[in-house]
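As the next step, I selected for study a record pairing a protein sequence with its backbone structure tokens, which the following lines show:
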Amino acid sequence: MASGESPPVLETLPSEIRLDILCILPYDSSQALIMASPVYFKTALEYRDLIRRQNGAASVEAFTLEAEAVYCARRMRLSEAYTQDGPDSDPGYYTESYPPMHASSHYTMETISRFAVSYMRDRKSNRKVLSFASHTGEQRRQMVDFHMSTIMPIARRFTQSALKNFAGQPEAQSSFVHEPITTTEEYRIVRAVYRFELCCQLFDDRAPDLEVVARNKHGIDLATMLQLLHTMFHPWEVEEILCINGFLEIKYNDIFDVATWDFDRNKPKFGYAPNMSCTDPLSRLSRHSYHRDYYLCGTLTRGLGLLQRALSAMEQNHDQQLVEIIKNEMRIEPIGFLGTYSGAVTEICKNALRARRGLSEQDLKRERRDPFPFRGDIIPDPNAEFPPLAWTIIWKDTYSNVVGDAIPYRMRYWGYVMWDAERITKAGGKEILQRQSRGIRG
């Protein structure tokens, strides 16, 4: 500031008002002000935790349904609810929407199905009671911490990667691709990240090593997993989750490459690497190992908290820390997950589900080719009335519940179902979709 100039008005406000401003602003705006003003930077250092919680609470408010579902599912796994102690030993982990199960309950197909039905019931009712403020202080704190430390960083990474891949398509108009994302686009992306985490908590069946692989302990096969996905989500919402899954698979492949490079006999970075035994678990993560995909799937299902830790270590070049994280936390998935080659969204699983339950109402709507045009970018959409434009383009304005391996995986790299009609139209998305979806049968 030049000599004789008065400080900006915002910086002359009393400290209590400066703190209030930082707390009520949206997270991005609060961070911008902190970086622009030494005075507000000092205030932020002094009240960092309070500001973070308040900013996070405002951000979480729009995702209360998803945040609550993830919170309850995670707490059910972490608690003693599925041992002889029963859930009543920890009355704080559940909420009105997801009440505690009887003490004799186990984490079975029945309890997971009940959870899925409760989730869909709340979606359809669009209950106003789902207010973030209605939760206890500890519940809010845990939801905010997870939202700010894990959900939002991964959502931002996905957004950057998807837009970069969008702009890299030959038909793309890059100037329109890189327009700031809209509120509905951000909502779809963040919601999909939450829902991926929910799938991790509900469906994972990881084992610590190849020798421990056993039949699914929850009684959930892949066809049942697909049925639960269709119970909780609309078809294009399943595709949103698969976009996140595909992005995270790429990130874990990058992580595994760094981890195995560090311990490769031929190109070690650490002095102890040449002594690594060929039976070291990391040897199974090599690009040449057929075990790699199983470990990738199993480690991915451990949830986004682990991934965020690994990504942070990799991006900060903390290679030894990354190696230790992966070596200690890697798991194998015996039955598959959301992958489009061997997971729940393959044609084999779809056929098995149809054989088991017959044709659903959604299957019949698809066979009749019921009209299903684009009607606007409206979120939330509890009654499945407002598919994104990309979805209606590839299915030519008719209803489809086809997801997974029937849809080219390359479409998910640019997050085709995440974008509003304006971006799809102006940025060349229609032309990309027409090229990439050629030959899709549904």
Remarks:
- Confidence is low (pLDDT under 50) at residues 80-96, 99-106, 206-217, 270-276.
- Residues 15-52 form one domain.
- The chain is about 55% helix and 0% strand.
